[in-house]
Amino acid sequence: MKRLMDIFLSLIALLISSPLWVIVPLLIKLEDGGPVFYAQKRIGKEQKIFCIWKFRSMIENAEKGLGPIQSSENDPRITKIGSFLRSTALDELPQLVSIFLGDMSFVGPRALRPGEKEALGDGTFKEISEFPGAEERLSVVPGLTGLAQIYGSHDTPRRNKFRYDLLYIKKKSFLLDLRLVVFSVLITLRGKWEHRGKKM
Question: Most buried in the list 64, 69, 95, 183, measured by CB within 10 Å?
Answer without folding.
Answer: 95
